[in-house]
Specification:
There is one protein chain. With 766 residues, this protein is an alpha+beta fold. 26% of the residues lie in helices and 25% in strands. It has 16 helices and 34 strands. The strands form ten sheets. The protein has a five-stranded mixed barrel with strand order 3-4-5-7-6. The protein is globular and about 80 Å long.
């Protein structure tokens, strides 16, 4: 074994296997030099496919606050003292309180999660979510579900915390605040003089305070943030809750307005080619255009030439500029049903860099040649000058191919559209041979009226026009990664890990309950999952299996290190095609400019040194955007259903926890919670193997994916929360009587009069 430079280490005993969390911590504690993923892999002899499992383990340890640092240098954060102050932040899936240190240096990574353990035999102080306690800490070791557990010594006064809520005026100059956080569904009274002049219905930032030593705890408005209803912007809540920048600094707007068209003299002229954009009906900007023709080379009979042209944002957004710093901070555009929070000002995104019909625009393009079976023979990147021949919608382009042309598509049908579909047919052959993960997930779109209220929810059909653009963009993204690798250029990859061994084991156990087997031969590939999905597609369990397979997958992210894209079954992949709305693509464009000598506005040395931090930051902003978009959709749907209390809906079980189950409505795709206390007249336990809540006496169960009928009991639009009552009877499944043994001291749930409680604050997420 090669000894890592500058480090004093010894060979570990667990050669050829992934080490435990504790072994990794012991290794880092005894290391005097730089130690990252590579050094850990060498020290423990981790090779081949086990490297993916090691990476997953290190990420999990970082999320738990056990390690911190970059991929190249990992450290072990300081150990918590035996007695410390904690903040109780929530509950785990078993209903136990979870806490974190009240003070923590974020430079050490995420704070460790601590399990609160309270004995009923001890008359200790009662604490709940949001409380601060002085607690005695016990280390459980790195391989435990929680690295620490704690017992309360003393309950402390709550620290003042800034929260978000909707203010409602009451008589006498007082008010009340409805929090927008599902975990804090409690009204807070606002005394006279503490309203901050907030008006009825406004979103406010508030803090909790007690009037006098023995007074009732109330709220004080500290900032008015606007009225979501008045502005027709329900997304305003999510924007402020997640800290998404939604206004541009004056310096950024000034720089955008002063932007001028780049020097067009040194670009290849593509204006003679009838490139077209194909986008959604409500698209506000157009950053990609496509064109295709049969390959004129007689040696490539049946082959195709395809050009994908992308808006040249790098020409306008220079490294280190005010525009660049703001774009990096935002990471991506955020798309809400009621508005868009763009990454770049409209002067850039909707004007200079939007590939508008008939307008001359600067572009960065790739010319690709494919054979008749869709295999790419060669490609070349260029900085060009283009003019879009038409701005088409997906439906418009598809209608033309299906024989329903209009005045725009008629003249383009034979010269532009049919060659595009011909090239797509070849690329589809290559896609089928490649075998990406085939999860058929319906997309739901919320339709709003002129007042910003939901008028309906639709599932747009998946058209060949969508698939065509998707395949062309994937091909361009692969070509970008290949070119930059060939030039040995640093870049940010779009990566997607294979499922972890733990998730695969859980999936295998679940499939066994359906008499299915995840057949694995050789390296794990999407085809292994596709066979299961295909075998069950025409069965009643199709949706259930698809949901569980989806939950077994890792989350895609950005990284300067390449470990492939499992879902697409690609060895190398980089985002290149949307620099208007994704900062990752802008970095790839700059890398291309530098690597190919296409200008003096390429990737800088300073950016190269920061690629690790940039990749992590834009991965985080992407997750932030997804959460904000999802929560806004939930709030809109909850408002849409608020006047239908008592109505019944068909749904499917979409998630399970010990305290109940989540359902997804067939009509709208809305998610809601059914408390276990309102299900059946017996004790229920959560069987993780069968993904079910099972009645202990009868064995009747509700399983993930089951079709059910539910009644809406409560809707809280500001929190996007819905609570339902179960109307359907459970069904029998093949589970041994008694199921999973009940944990000592853990509560189970028995049917009685449903408790009048708020909607459950937790949420099952993929």
């Amino acid at each position: 074994m090669v000894k890592p430079k500058g480090a004093r280490r010894t060979r570990q005993k667990t050669v050829g296997t992934v080490p435990t969390k504790q072994q990794i911590l012991d290794f880092l504690a005894g290391t005097t030099g730089e130690a990252g993923k590579r050094e850990i892999a060498r020290a423990f002899g981790v090779k081949g496919g086990d490297r993916i499992a090691l990476k997953s383990l290190l990420r999990e340890m970082a999320d738990d606050g056990l390690i911190a640092g970059s991929r190249r240098k990992l450290t072990r954060p300081g150990v918590l003292p035996p007695v410390t102050v904690l903040e109780i932040t929530g509950r785990d899936v078993d209903g136990e309180f979870v806490a974190r240190p009240a003070t923590w240096d974020e430079e050490h990574g995420p704070a460790p999660r601590i399990l609160m353990v309270e004995s009923r035999r001890e008359a200790g102080p009662v604490a709940g979510v949001g409380d601060r306690v002085l607690a005695r800490i016990t280390s459980l070791g790195a391989d435990a579900d929680f690295p620490y557990q704690a017992r309360t010594i003393k309950r402390l006064a709550k620290a003042r915390t800034n929260l978000l809520g909707i203010f409602r005026t009451l008589s006498g100059g007082t008010g009340v605040i409805d929090p927008v956080d599902r975990k804090q569904l409690k009204e807070w009274p606002v005394p006279r003089g503490h309203t901050g002049d907030a008006e009825n219905g406004e979103l406010v930032r508030f803090e909790l305070a007690r009037s006098g030593r023995f007074g009732v705890q109330g709220a004080r408005v500290i900032e008015r943030l606007g009225n979501p209803a008045a502005q027709q912007a329900t997304s305003l809540i999510a924007v402020h809750a997640h800290g998404i920048p939604d206004t541009f600094p004056e310096s950024v707007l000034t720089e955008a307005e002063a932007a001028k068209e780049p020097d067009l003299s040194r670009r290849e002229d593509l204006r003679h080619l009838p490139l077209v954009t194909i986008d959604p009906t409500d698209a506000r900007d157009h950053d990609d255009a496509v064109w295709a023709e049969p390959d004129p080379d007689a040696k490539n009979k049946g082959g195709w030439v395809v050009i994908v042209a992308i808006a040249d944002v790098a020409s306008y957004v220079m490294p280190g500029s005010a525009l660049d710093k703001e774009a990096r901070k935002r990471g991506n555009s955020v798309y809400f049903p009621d508005r868009v929070v763009p990454m770049l000002p409209e002067r850039i995104s909707n004007d200079l860099c939007s590939l508008k019909e008939g307008e001359v625009r600067a572009c960065l393009a790739v010319r690709m040649v494919f054979d008749k079976d869709g295999r790419k023979l060669n490609h070349r990147f260029l900085r060009g000058l283009m003019r879009s021949a038409a701005s088409l919608t997906y439906e418009q382009a598809q209608a033309a191919i299906d024989g329903r042309v209009d005045e725009v598509t008629g003249p383009l049908l034979d010269t532009v559209l049919r060659p595009l579909w011909g090239a797509y047919a070849s690329l589809e052959l290559a896609r089928t041979e490649r075998g990406p993960l085939e999860l058929d997930l319906p997309e739901r779109k919320i339709l709003l009226d002129d007042q910003g209220r939901v008028r309906g929810v639709t599932s747009p059909p998946r058209l060949d026009a969508h698939r065509l653009i998707e395949e062309f963009m994937i091909a361009a993204n692969v070509a970008a990664a290949e070119t930059l690798e060939a030039k040995r250029s640093p870049l940010i990859y779009r990566v997607h890990d294979a499922p972890s061994k733990e998730k695969l084991a859980a999936l295998g156990e679940f499939l066994a309950t359906l008499d299915l087997k995840l057949s694995m031969s050789g390296t794990l590939k999407p085809a292994h999952f596709n066979r299961i999905l295909a075998d069950t597609r025409a069965t009643p369990t199709a949706e259930l299996v698809g949901e569980v397979v989806l939950r077994s997958q890792a989350q895609a992210e950005y990284s300067p290190s390449n470990f492939g894209h499992f879902g697409l079954n690609l060895r190398r992949y980089a985002h290149f095609t949307s620099p208007i709305r994704r900062y990752a693509d802008l970095i790839v464009h700059r890398a291309m400019v530098r690597a190919l000598g296409l200008g003096n506005d390429g990737l800088t040395d300073a950016e190269i040194d920061e690629l690790d931090q940039i990749a992590q930051a834009i991965s985080d902003t992407e997750r932030r955007a997804m959460a904000a978009e999802r929560e806004t959709a939930d709030r809109l749907i909850a408002a849409y259903l608020a006047d239908r209390i008592g109505a019944t809906f068909t749904a499917r079980v979409s998630g399970l926890v010990r305290s109940g189950l989540f359902v997804r409505l067939s009509e709208t795709g809305a998610d809601g919670f059914v408390p276990a206390s309102s299900i059946g007249r017996e004790y229920f336990y959560h069987d993780e193997v069968h993904q079910a809540l099972i009645g202990e006496d009868t064995g009747m169960a509700y399983q993930l994916g089951d079709p059910v009928e539910v009644r809406l009991v409560e809707a809280i639009p500001t929190a996007g929360a819905l609570r339902f009552e179960m109307l359907s009877e459970g069904r029998g499944i093949k589970a041994r009587r008694g199921g999973v043994p009940r944990a000592k001291g853990k509560p189970q749930y028995k049917r009685g009069k449903p408790k009048q409680r708020g909607c459950d604050g937790s949420r099952s997420r993929r």
